[in-house]
Amino acid sequence: MQNIPPQVQSMLAQLESYQQQLQLLVQQKQKVQVELNEAKKALEEIEKLPDDAVIYKTVGTLIVKTEKAKAVEELKEKVETLEVRLNALERQEKKLNEKLKELTAKIQASLKPPVAG
Amino acid sequence: MQNIPPQVQSMLAQLESYQQQLQLLVQQKQKVQVELNEAKKALEEIEKLPDDAVIYKTVGTLIVKTEKAKAVEELKEKVETLEVRLNALERQEKKLNEKLKELTAKIQASLKPPVAG
Amino acid sequence: MQNIPPQVQSMLAQLESYQQQLQLLVQQKQKVQVELNEAKKALEEIEKLPDDAVIYKTVGTLIVKTEKAKAVEELKEKVETLEVRLNALERQEKKLNEKLKELTAKIQASLKPPVAG
Amino acid sequence: MQNIPPQVQSMLAQLESYQQQLQLLVQQKQKVQVELNEAKKALEEIEKLPDDAVIYKTVGTLIVKTEKAKAVEELKEKVETLEVRLNALERQEKKLNEKLKELTAKIQASLKPPVAG
């Protein structure tokens, strides 16, 4: 194996940086996905309750009375916010995967020995 | 110590992979075991309450009224689900331990110097 | 690169120690900032409630009834305590940053080759 | 620096093992100390409540009504259990510190060059 030329080394460093970014993105996506599933499940459960159900909500370490309509509204907002964030993360992931693919191809082409070599 | 032949190196890599899988399994098992103990303890405590006891349940960050019968039913389902998962993990652990044992024996046999050596 | 003289080595060790202290400070500051934001948000939400609102507070794993006035008072104290702590951490951070700057300048001066060298 | 004789190497390995045990003990002690402080603070706060105060307790993800007397009793038991555990950990820590001291002295004596050397 010959020494790796500087411009390829710099591409390999870029590749590693992309891979780290991708790993971080995937972790963030999983966290948002878990939160979204929990919010959706809670919404489903709250929506099944009668309209005059006794519902409390936690506010930090305090617990205050709320109403079904308000609780449903807040959960719907939460679900929406999390879906927007999840979509943004998925777009970033797709873009980054494309960059990774292109860079990997470029690196492989650079490392290919010349035909007449 | 002589160089390790390629086929033994590949078995050693497989061994390491099995050990990592086993470590992960043991961690998952402990987590499920803790959840199961908590669910069993909660079930025991709830079952002792009078049938008309005031019981609330948390739904995400919300708290809603429930009934003893429903709470007991949900806890029993949870205990059952966790027991099924624990059994599955224990079966996987047992299988993996057998594979590990076989592979270790195979590696030891490969590394034994030939009798006439 | 020549050997680094002992007094510069000791300054480099000091620099590293300062950088670790700074990193710790920044982490503590972020934690206090998050707690402060949560306390402020809770205060805002509790203040909007009617004076006779049903409010509970968590005491460890117990939940006890409280009143709006008391809850607001406790949250205000919490916000104040956290603000004092945040200010103290910010002062420490500023001081440490100045020390880091001075030491870096001193190290650079020590490593500069003599004019006639 | 000469090669370290095998029996000293084994003492150094033992020393490192003691230090790791000590670090673990200190972490456990801190955790129990934090839990104990929380339980004591909760007990103090619950004891101040009127005897007929509305108190709930969390049982896993469920919340059930309890009474002041019962809550106080459970908290007292918790405080007692944690104090017993803390004392046991402190005794272990003291013993380990003595062992560490003795072993360090033994290692230093072993490494001291002979008088006529």
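The radius of gyration of chain C is 24 Å.
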